[in-house]
């Protein structure tokens, strides 16, 4: 009887622990209330959290086994291409070495929309974060960075023996002496190179990109698309200009909202419409959006939840 | 952009955060220290506005609480027989694992590996995506073509197995410390 109650509390504690990792305001507040209800709640949560913390240094060394043939649940398996399958196979190949991981030396840098920050990793390596961007760096490893979401411009000191590696979701960008720009948004990765060369996903699926080229990786099975890009356009947001050669309006909207700091979206009917031209941000913020309408051939309206671009002439007065 | 919003929200939320820390088991003065640390950090670091600001402050309090407890735990252990395990020298934590910590880690790794191997394959893979790859549940649900609550059930199963294994291991270790020399009793 008593055990039953305890098991129940444990099950709740586990649920909380899982939800809290990406928990929002309401989740945390409900959790605080639950903890305060009964001292046994805190005790149970402690045990779950402690177990999860204890495995942290071990996780890099475990092998996640996956059946050799995956036909046991064919209808429900939806691996996106070979991406994760490959990653798992690779981890199986890694020998189980054992040393305790050093204290975590990673740290996050987050910018708000409209905000910009420069992070210097060493004297000749500098990362400029555009607005609404989240990155992770490592105090002990200046040759590592990870772009969780958003956009950043990289100016990287080249060292052939110790290349700079940027993780973008499950992908890797490895430099070969470089200025390059990376966007990571909604599962899509875009890389553009202004100087030097980078290698995207070194290994069998490697794509090498020279100055004046850009790539789009929509993830999954879609192949990586490489196109030319004007070198001056790469990372031009840093100096307040956005250069486009046929980018869809949805992307123009996305980049405007990152640069100005207010939500901007393109209506579905025109989201795919291409735009050629340069937008010079004049620093007037949202006020500039309305004036941009004619140049973009759209009408720009303010809504309670942000700005929206709609087909020109369709706007209600 | 200023982080004034976060600092003033922290001021408003302070009593609630204090209650939270106390219910997590922090002592009153320890909780005050933790909140003071957080306050200083919020002022010093320029953290941009965050979307779920209260969640952010709660989770920051939780992290600081864990750090505090880890430091305190290390102090206590040094005074007990763990000192030998941790490499011995007072006041210093040896970064290189001693042979004994390495044995302990090896044993823990073997247990964790077995726990994961015993899980249904799907739970194991979902656990990997969540805990090792750090993917949010929503994304995992999309990949697997199942609902978020189904993902949560798989994760709960994995955490249940891990937590039980950990508690069993702790109990065993306590037993073994009483039975000196019986180190290999539960070894695989």
Describe the structure.
The complex is a heterodimer of chains A (317) and B (188). With 317 residues, chain A is of the alpha+beta class. Chain A has 4 domains: 54 residues, no CATH class; 33 residues, no CATH class; 125 residues, Jelly Rolls; 72 residues, Phage tail protein beta-alpha-beta fold (3-Layer(bab) Sandwich). Helices cover 26% and strands 33% of the residues of chain A. In chain A, the strands form 3 sheets. In chain A, strands 1, 2, 3, 4, 5, 6, 7, 8, 9, 10, 11, 12 and 13 form a 13-stranded mixed β-sheet that branches. Chain A has a 3-stranded mixed β-sheet with strand order 15-18-17. The N and C termini of chain A lie far apart (69 Å). About 11% of the residues of chain A have low confidence. Chain B is mainly α and 188 residues long. Chain B has 2 domains: 82 residues, no CATH class; 80 residues, Winged helix-like DNA-binding domain superfamily/Winged helix DNA-binding domain (Arc Repressor Mutant, subunit A, Orthogonal Bundle). Helices cover 74% and strands 0% of the residues of chain B. Chain B contains 8 helices and no strands. The longest helix of chain B is centred in the last third of the chain and has 31 residues. Chain B is flat and about 50 Å long. Chain B starts with a helix and ends in a 10-residue tail after the last helix. In chain B, 24% of the residues are buried. The C terminus of chain B is likely disordered. The chains are: A alpha+beta (317), B mainly alpha (188). At the A-B interface, helix 1, helix 2 and helix 3 of A face helix 1, helix 3, helix 5, helix 6 and helix 7 of B.
């Amino acid at each position: 009887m008593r055990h039953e109650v305890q098991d129940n509390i444990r099950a709740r504690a586990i649920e909380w622990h899982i939800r809290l990792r990406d928990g929002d305001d309401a989740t945390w507040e409900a959790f605080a209330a639950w903890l305060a209800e009964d001292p046994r709640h805190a005790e149970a949560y402690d045990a779950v959290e402690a177990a999860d913390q204890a495995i942290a240094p071990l996780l890099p060394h475990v092998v996640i086994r996956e059946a050799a043939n995956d036909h046991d649940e064919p209808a429900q398996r939806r691996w996106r291409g070979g991406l994760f399958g490959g990653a798992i196979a690779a981890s199986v190949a890694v020998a189980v070495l054992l040393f305790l991981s050093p204290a975590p030396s990673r740290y996050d840098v987050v910018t708000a929309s409209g905000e910009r920050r420069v992070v210097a990793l060493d004297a000749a390596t500098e990362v400029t974060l555009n607005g609404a961007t989240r990155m992770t760096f490592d105090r002990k490893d200046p040759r590592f960075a990870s772009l969780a979401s958003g956009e950043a411009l990289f100016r990287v000191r080249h060292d052939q023996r110790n290349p700079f590696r940027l993780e973008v979701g499950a992908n890797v960008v490895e430099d070969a002496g470089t200025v390059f720009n990376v966007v990571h948004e909604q599962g899509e990765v875009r890389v553009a190179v202004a100087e030097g060369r980078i290698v995207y996903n070194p290994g069998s699926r490697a794509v090498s990109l020279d100055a004046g080229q850009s790539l789009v990786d929509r993830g999954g099975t879609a192949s990586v698309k490489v196109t030319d890009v004007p070198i001056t356009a790469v990372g031009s947001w840093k100096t307040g200009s956005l250069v486009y050669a046929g980018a869809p309006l949805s992307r123009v909207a996305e980049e405007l909202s990152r640069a100005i700091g207010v939500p901007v979206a393109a209506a579905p009917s025109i989201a795919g419409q291409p735009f050629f031209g340069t937008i010079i941000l004049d620093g007037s913020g949202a006020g500039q959006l309305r004036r941009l309408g004619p140049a973009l051939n759209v009408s720009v309206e303010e809504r309670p939840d942000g700005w929206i671009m709609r087909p020109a002439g369709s706007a209600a007065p | 952009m200023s982080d004034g919003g976060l600092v003033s929200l922290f001021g408003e939320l302070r009593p609630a955060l204090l209650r939270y820390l106390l219910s997590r088991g922090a002592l009153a003065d320890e909780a005050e220290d933790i909140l003071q640390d957080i306050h200083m950090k919020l002022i010093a670091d320029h953290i941009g506005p965050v979307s779920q600001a209260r969640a952010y402050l709660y989770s920051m309090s939780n992290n600081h609480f864990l750090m505090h407890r880890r430091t305190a735990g290390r102090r206590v252990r040094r005074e007990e027989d763990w000192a030998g395990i941790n490499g011995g020298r007072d006041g210093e934590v040896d970064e290189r694992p001693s042979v004994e910590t390495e044995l302990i880690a090896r044993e823990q790794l073997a247990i964790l590996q077995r726990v994961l191997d015993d899980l249904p394959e799907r739970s194991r893979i979902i656990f990997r995506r969540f805990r090792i790859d750090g993917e949010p549940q929503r994304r995992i649900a999309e990949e697997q073509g199942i609902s978020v609550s189904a993902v949560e059930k798989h994760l709960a199963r994995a955490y249940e197995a891990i937590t039980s294994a950990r508690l069993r291991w702790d109990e065993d270790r306590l037993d073994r410390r009483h039975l000196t020399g019986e180190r290999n009793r539960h070894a695989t």
